[in-house]
Specification:
The protein is built from 7 helices and 6 strands, in the order E-H-E-H-H-E-H-E-H-E-H-E-H. It has 184 residues and is α/β, with parallel strands linked by helices.
C-alpha cells in the first residue's frame, strides 16, 4: 500500500479567490510548489481533494476545473513537481440538483475513491487544508490532519478538531510531515 498527502486546493496551495476557475487567476501560496516537490521526493502520492460548488452554482463547468488542473500540472512540471490526481466535488446542498452526496468535504467519498484508485494506506497518510471541514474529513478517514493558517485557516483554528496539528502554511506542513517521518 502507498502513502499519500491529500491537499485541499483553494487557500491551501493557491491563494483563496472566490470560485477560482480561470488559469490567469491562479496564484501559488508561497512555498506550495516546494512543498509539493518535497512530498514527491519523500515518496508520497500528492492528491488534491477539493469542493467546487461553483459548478453547482452554474458559475463555471467541470471542464473549466479540469482545464485549470491541467494548467497547474504544466506549472508544476516546469518545477520538477507533480500532483498525482485531482478529485473534486461538484455539488452543493443548496444549489444545482441539491443532492446529498458522499463526496463534499467533510464527507470522505473522494478520499475513499482515491484510496481505491491508488491502493493508499490512509493510516500512514496526511490531510492538509485550510478549513475545519478538511481536518474533519482527514480525521474521519483515519489520517493525520494539518490545518494551515493560509486561506480561511486563521479563522478556522477555533473550529478544528481537538488534537489537530496547526501550521502557518503548506511549506511548514511539509516540514511537520518530514520531521514525523524522521522520528519514526
Amino acid at each position: 500500500m502507498k502513502r499519500a498527502v491529500f491537499l485541499d486546493r483553494d487557500g491551501t496551495i493557491n491563494a483563496e479567490k472566490n470560485y477560482l476557475h480561470k488559469p490567469e487567476d491562479w496564484e501559488w501560496i508561497p512555498g506550495a510548489v516546494e512543498a509539493i516537490r518535497g512530498f514527491n521526493e519523500l515518496g508520497f502520492l500528492v492528491i488534491v481533494i477539493t469542493n467546487q460548488a461553483g459548478i453547482a452554482r452554474n458559475y463555471f463547468e467541470a471542464k473549466d476545473v479540469e482545464a485549470l488542473h491541467k494548467y497547474v500540472d504544466k506549472l508544476l512540471n516546469k518545477e520538477n513537481a507533480r500532483i498525482d490526481a485531482y478529485y473534486y466535488c461538484p455539488h452543493h446542498p443548496d444549489f444545482g440538483d441539491k443532492i446529498v452526496c458522499s463526496c463534499r468535504k467533510p464527507e470522505i467519498g473522494l478520499i475513499l475513491q482515491a484510496q481505491k484508485d491508488f491502493d493508499i494506506d490512509l493510516s500512514s497518510s496526511f490531510m492538509i487544508g485550510d478549513k475545519a471541514t478538511d481536518i474533519e474529513s482527514g480525521n474521519r478517514a483515519g489520517m493525520t490532519s494539518i490545518l494551515v493558517a493560509t486561506g480561511y485557516g486563521s479563522g478556522e483554528c477555533h473550529k478544528a478538531a481537538e488534537g489537530a496539528i496547526l501550521a502557518d502554511n503548506i511549506y511548514k506542513a511539509f516540514e511537520i510531515v518530514k520531521n514525523q517521518l524522521i522520528e519514526i
